[in-house]
Design brief:
3-stranded antiparallel β-sheet; 13 helices; hpI Integrase, Chain A; 3 strands; mainly alpha; DNA polymerase, domain 1; 2 domains; about 300 residues; single chain; elongated
């Protein structure tokens, strides 16, 4: 079997068996297509670590960032691990492939007071019953109150809300389902939107039933781009930079740890497969503590 044919089979495996997100699948397909083209699409068993190193070095020469190089190497290592498992090759040529270590970039987070003021302002603006403002208020409260991903918010259906228990049933990466709690402010904003805002937005559509909780201005399920625009417009001035929905997730996770939440609990809430992914927020909390100390302590 040739390298390219095997790579396409692996990408299909990622999409249909492991059910990774379309964005991740596209990235891996592009990375593997690039290495196939660079190596001339040889027979898979002829690929060796020297060819892979040459490809990675060419990526360095093209100016790719350390994070991109790490992702490309991860794509190749994942592919060859799968190839060994499927019996396509006996030896994994990527096992000795070394990539530059990525520098740790701490996520941007807003202060708890800043987020609280933002949510209060949007809630007050929605009091006149504007359906879009009611939606935006509920959307922002849910994103911050649950720390779910934007893709999870867009996929949220009406039957996923348990009003009595104040929980959402969320389907995350790899089709993993989890229950996420939300507080009284999010509950009130959701109720106001579902009763007064959503019916108006739905009426702007074609009349077909829509299971989605959050709708766009034309009555269909809201998309990630629209959510990004809402968050960027509202949260950007609070943080002082261009940010998207993930900034609310970062902020919520950091504020939970600042408030004394257990790291394992935050991991479960965020739906992280690895605790190492969640630990970035302990560094954010430490940075905030150090910054506060430097500003407040007379001997800092």
């Amino acid at each position: 079997m040739r390298f390219g044919e095997a790579a396409e089979s692996y990408v299909d495996h990622l999409a249909h068996v492991r059910r990774l997100s379309p964005r991740t699948v596209r990235a891996y397909r592009g990375d593997l297509a690039d290495v196939v083209a660079a190596t001339g699409d040889p027979v898979l068993t002829d690929v060796d670590v020297h060819a892979l190193r040459e490809w990675l070095w060419e990526s360095v020469q093209r100016g790719h960032s350390a994070s991109t190089l790490a992702r490309r190497a991860a794509a190749v290592r994942g592919f060859f691990a799968w190839s060994v498992e499927m019996g396509l090759v006996e030896v994994d040529p990527s096992a000795r492939l070394v990539t530059p270590k990525r520098g740790r970039t701490l996520p941007r987070v807003a202060t708890a007071d800043g987020v609280s003021d933002l949510l209060d302002d949007v809630r007050d603006a929605a009091r006149d019953g504007d359906p879009v403002l009611l939606r935006d208020s509920a959307l922002l409260e849910v994103l911050y109150g649950t720390a779910i991903r934007v893709s999870e918010l867009c996929a949220l259906d009406r039957d996923a809300i348990d009003d009595d228990r104040r929980t959402l049933r969320v389907v995350g990466k790899g089709d993993k389902e989890r229950m996420v709690p939300f507080g009284a402010p999010a509950s009130a904003a959701l109720e106001a939107y579902l009763v007064r805002g959503r019916p108006v937005l739905h009426a702007r559509g074609d009349g077909a039933p829509v299971a989605a909780v959050f709708l766009g201005t034309r009555g269909a399920r809201i998309g990630p781009r629209a959510v990004y625009d809402v968050v960027a417009r509202r949260l950007g001035p609070v943080i002082g930079a261009s940010v998207g929905p993930h900034a609310l997730r970062h902020s919520a996770a950091t504020h939970l740890l600042d408030g004394g939440a257990d790291l394992r609990t935050v991991q479960e809430l965020l739906g992280h497969a690895s605790l190492a992914t969640t630990q970035i927020y302990t560094h954010v909390s430490s940075e905030r503590l150090a910054a506060t100390y430097r500003l407040a302590h007379p001997r800092a």
